[in-house]
Structure formats: C-alpha cells, structure tokens
Amino acid sequence: MSSSFPKALEEAEKFSEPRSQGDVESSSLTSKTKGEETDVCDDTFRVTLDPSEDPTQWSVVWRWFLAFLVTFAGFCSTFASSAASFTEDGLVEDLHTSHEVSILSISLYVLGMGLGPLLVGPLSEVYGRNIIYQVSYVLFFAFTWPTAFPPDMATFLVFRFISGFCSSAFLSVAGGSVGDLFAGAEVASPMAMYALGPFLGPAMGPMISAIICQHIDWRWTYRLLLIMQFSIIILLFTVIPETYEPALLKRKAARLRKETGNSEYWAPLDRQTWSLSEKILSSCSTPFKLLLFDHMVLLLDTWSALILGILYLTFEAYPIIFQGLHGFNMQDTGLSFLGIAIGLTAATLTQPFWNRFIQKQAAKYDGKPPPEVQLIRGQVGGVIAPIGLFWLAFTTYRSVPWIVPIIASVLFGFGSYYMFTSTFTYLVIAYRPVAASALASNTAWRLTFAAIFPLFANQMYNRLGTVGATALLAGLLTLMMPLPFFIYRMGARLRKNSPYSVAS
Fold first, then answer.
1. Residues 229-284: pLDDT tens digits?
2. In what ranges is there compositional bias, type Basic and acidic residues (predicted)?
3. What are φ and ψ of residue 263, in 5° steps?
4. Is 442 a member of any domain?
5. What is the CATH number of the domain that holds 391?
6. Are 11 and 179 in contact (CB under 8 A)?
7. In the chain, what is the greatest distance between 2 CA atoms, to the nearest angstrom?
C-alpha cells in the first residue's frame, strides 16, 4: 500500500502557489562564480518553467490520462502481492514444498515493498521521477521472470522478495506525480483515484489468480504479471513524461548552458549541498526514530498496520471460510473478494462529500483547520470496519447464505479505506517538517504487519474456528476504535510536546 498518496498532497500544496513564468527570475542566493565563493550574487540566471513546460498547465484531459496511467502502475505493484494467494497449491505440488513455506510468496514480496521506499524516495528527489520509474519497472519485469519459470522454491522466493523491492517505486513516488500534475484544490479528485489503485490491487489479485489457477496453470499468474509490467514499461518510455518540477528545472538549466554557452544558468537542485548518501541515511533512520520516540506516530501506524495485516490475512482465511464451509471452487472463492473491492471503490466515490466537508471546516478556522480535522473520516471508518468484521465473524456458519459474509466484507473494505486515507493525510499535515519520514515509518510498519499476518492465519483459524478467529480480529480493531477520537481531542496538546510535529 501506498505512502505516496499524502506525500503528493504535501507536494501539491507546496507547488500550489502561482509560479513565476519565463526563463529567469531575480532572487539572491549564495553561489560560486569563477571558482570563488561569494556571499550574495545576482541570480538573474535562475531558470523557471514556461507555461508549456509546467505540468499543472497541461491540458486537463492529458493530465487525467497521465494520472490514470500512474494509478494503473501502482495497482499492478500491489496486485502482484496478492496474486500469489491461489498459486500456493501449485507451488506445493510442483516445487515440492510445504504449504507454510508457500505462504512466503506473499510475505516476502510485501516485505520487499516495505523496504524499497527507504531507498527509492531519496533517489527520486535527486534524479526525478521518470528515471526511477523506468529503472525500477525494468528490474521489476526482469526479476519476475524467475517466478514465472521457477526452477526450485528457493529461487522463486528470493526473486519474489527482489521483485517486491523493485515494485515499490510506484508506492513511494507515484502519488507525487499526481501532485505534480494538479495544483491546489484540483488535486483531491485525481488523488482519490490514485489512492484507490494501491488499495484495490490486493483485493483484485485473488480474483484473477483464482480464475487462472483453476482453468490454466498457476505459472500463468506470474506470466500475466509479466504482460502487465511490459505494457507499463512501454508507456514509461514512450508516453509518461517527467513531472517533478525540480528535475525539470535542472534539465532546463543544463540545456540552456549547452545551447547558449553560458555556464551561469542554474536550478535549485544544482545548489544542493547534501550528498545522496546523507539523504539515504536520513531516509532510513528518521522513520524509525519517529516510531520509537513519538507515541502518536506509533499508535497511528499500528492502527493502520492492523487493518492492512487483516486485509492480507484474508488471503488465507477466505479459502477456509468459502471453500471449507460453503463448498466454493477456487474461482468462486477468488470472486468472494469482490465485496472488499466494492467497499474500497464505494469509499472512494464519497471523496466529493469529504472535499466539501473539509472546505467547511477550513472556513471555521479562517482557512487553516487543525490537522485533527482529517481524523473525522478515520473515526467513521474506525467504527464501520470492526462492525463489518463482527458481521463477517458471526455469519461464517454453513447455515448462513454465502452472500451475507460477502456483504459484511463490503463494510470492512469501506471502513478500511477511510482509516488509511485519514491516517496518511493527518501524518502529512501534522508532521509536515518530516512528512516523508512519517509516511515511510507508516509504510514500513504497515507492510511488516501485512507480511506477518498471513503466516499464522491457518493455525489461528484451525485452532479458534472461523467465528472465533474472525471475532478476535474484530475485537482488536474495536480496542483501537477510540484512537482517532482521542487524538482528535488531544492532538494539539500532543503535538506541542513532540519534537517532530507541527506546533498547535
């Protein structure tokens, strides 16, 4: 799941002010001229973007098309994580392994997705978004081949982890591309579309995988991933342009220096004093400092991690419920995930309502509502999701029609989306000075839960039964239900005592 949704909100706000146009603007910065350090110089040669070069000034249709492509790429990355769920029987039979080991096909991929953003994020800030997309997706494609044609289980698992690591670019960076394309208030609707992609991917993966595994061969699940990846690679190299403004400015400055022979043209990235290694070190260390020393971050991260862990646990639980109790075949069991997908999609469609709600809240606070306003949606989701899980738990009896627990999963999907987006947006606004690190901590913690939960699903459901195991998960969510209400009331006081967050 993506951390880039709120990161893009941060970047969109940063670039939402009117941009000066033309090749140059006047300002003062310290620079070196002819090898000598000067305190202040005339920055007449600082480049800016012309209207035709500014991504926010491109046609609306073109910007929405690019946002859709980015959404599809993010969808494919998370789709690949759960698509492995129905290939486990094939792995056991053909690669001579145990069912417990086969579950690692999900867990190792998700673990790779969680670690990748720590490296990819800093690289994108130096080299731009497109080169990161291109390199990572080519590697994603290359390292998926051994999983589609695996010689043995060890090779398969190693390359599942590596391919998950390479897929993470569209989770950590791509939402920023949407923020590059839409400024200010424009960003909310396309961002809602983008946010759905990484969430919908895990719900759709089992549906497609089940159909393929029942009617063709489990290996074709991974071969389908290759086809999807190759189509995205073609688009990355032929259609999708660079949208990151600092990278565009740096390229323009280099072009002007070459065309004019004047070496004084420059862009802000040319004057950065930090090194790439320093950025990577900070990217890796600060998220863990937040988890260790900021209790509010730890609680919110655990809340969202629990819901994602439960979502990934359903990849093992649903076959127990629908195949074991209702006699579904593999294809029908996969289609039972449609309830979660419908819930996620329905929650996305309520975005216009929340846009108006936030605008009204902003009016009450002279245009600057406190970050805690963002948690109101999380309060709604925090109530709906456990209701859906309790409903699911107590309707898993054979005597209850199969459609009833699927309807319950709609509520779970709906509430989950609200919880995710509320947490992400709050972290961006409340921890703006370290927003990227706050989101990286959330991503790493969430995907750690998502990697671990499927590993104990079978043992838990075999020991507690479908009712007891699902009710236990619902109970854990219920225990966390007061969290958004507590932070809504106490958040301002807690932020004052945090060295990382924005003061009240």
1. 999 999 999 999 988 888 888 888 888 888 888 888 888 777 777 776 777 777 67
2. 8-22
3. -80, 0
4. yes
5. 1.20.1250.20
6. yes
7. 84
